[in-house]
Amino acid sequence: MGAVDRLARAAVLVAARRWPDDLAGVMRDEWLAELAVIGEPWRKLAFAGSLAVSPGVDEPSWRERAENAGRLAAVAAGVTLLAAVATNLARATEALAPVMLLLGAAGLALAGRRVRGSVALAGVALFAFLFAGNPVPMMPFMGARDIAPAVAVWTIGMAVALRARRRWVAVAGGLVTLDLAVVAGSAHAAAALGVPAWTAPAWFPLALLPGGTVSFGPHLGDGPAFHASGILLANAAVSAGPFLLCTAFLLASALTGKTGEPARSSGHLTRRVTDAARAAVSRLGVNARRGAAGAVTALATLAVAPALPAAGGDPDVVLRRLLDNSTAFGFGFVEHPVGLGAVALLAALLAMRATDSLTAA
Amino acid sequence: MGEPRITASVLKVLAGLLAEPGAQRYGLELMQDTGLPSGTLYPILARFERAGWVESRWEQIDPAAEGRPSRRYYVLTAEGTVAARREVALMRQQMSRAAGPLGQAQEA
């Protein structure tokens, strides 16, 4: 048997293994029989290669896979953006920030019960948004060496936690992941600022509190002195809020799917709002309602996005925001036309998708 | 088991099988008739068999005497023949409706 025959045979065996058990053996024998009568080597390879790269009988087609990936990517980007906006709104309430963050987490959890999410794509979106939204000049410890470990630990930790069979294990795994992700993202800052490592487990919960609630580490600054913990926790707060809200979304999304509960709106108010929205969109044609939803959302995003807190150029303002945690997410990307356009396009796509869901429900 | 979703590739296979409704066809032959690659054809045949549109059986030969392994043959069932004629007719109807204004314009 020549190299081409061996390669073609191996490709056929790999392809057959992806078919259901009741068909795998039959298909393997059938394909090997066909291979035996094909003369030209290139036709053997084309026959076997096509089987090896094509979806099996019960696997989704490439088009379905691409549509699904696009949908999950849009959801990941939308949830990350929503989490960042909610975090900023919560931070703006200063003393009430922890309560508002928990309310935001509850809101994202409600959304997660209706929409399926992807941990890997959420990780990619979080990295992109944190990196583009918080330029290093504003946040001294928001470079790739800070964000990358935090997002990597969060993504791996969430992927493991969501595999848990018991609900409480998944939730506990999510909380541990949040703590570890913030530690991973703050380790560089802690080393540079001289903050003791034994305080690490407390960085995540402390990053959810208003700035200055607890102080530790060396004193810094020539004027009114502040502790190193102020800088460390301010940086940690940038990612802790979006991490918390995205975790709530993914846990709700996965746990709803695990128990087999039907996706449904929770509570009378949500149901009434959904019913009213459904009645409103049903009066329009399919394309008209999708187009209207997309256009209105895009225009609203273009109008509102520039008002979101951006990285300031004034060092005093930046320092104050750092120390009181009032700006958790920089939204630096909406200062550029391309970034603003991308956010408007994303919001429009999600609105059109939501309109489709309302119509189909 | 529900009926297979009708796509352009599925219609090609149905049309290929309908060319000789009672004939026993094997995969490589259908690939040549339809122009479909193996990775597209075999999942369609498997769905047809699950839906009861085709039946398959192994060729009864002596592999040593023939110098090749037995082939798996597919043949349209009565139900499959009805379904295939219905789907192909529906497709032709839709195509003629779509080509109607264009055909009339070309004739003018």
Architecture overview:
The complex is a heterodimer of chains A (361) and B (108). Chain A is mainly α and 361 residues long. Chain A has two domains: 3-53; 62-360, no CATH class. Helix content of chain A is 71%, strand content 1%. In chain A, helix 4 crosses helix 6 (119-133) and helix 6 (119-133) packs antiparallel against helix 7 (144-161). The termini of chain A are far apart. The model of chain A is unreliable at 259-266 (pLDDT under 50). By secondary structure, chain B is mainly alpha-helical. In chain B, 62% of the residues lie in helices and 11% in strands. Chain B contains five helices and three strands. The longest helix of chain B is centred in the last third of the chain and has 30 residues, at 78-107. At the A-B interface, helix 2 and helix 3 of A face helix 2 and helix 3 of B. Chain B: It holds the Pfam family PadR.
Order of helices and strands of chain B: HEHHEHEH
Helix content estimate of chain B: 55-70%
Strand numbers in spatial order across the main sheet of chain A: 1-2
- Adjacency order of strands in the biggest sheet of chain B: 1-3-2
Largest interface: A-B, 25 and 17 residues
CATH topology name of chain B: Arc Repressor Mutant, subunit A
Alpha carbon gap, first and last residue of chain B: 48 Å
Structure summary:
The complex is a heterodimer of chains A (361) and B (108). Chain A is mainly alpha-helical and 361 residues long. Chain A has 2 domains: 3-53; 62-360, no CATH class.
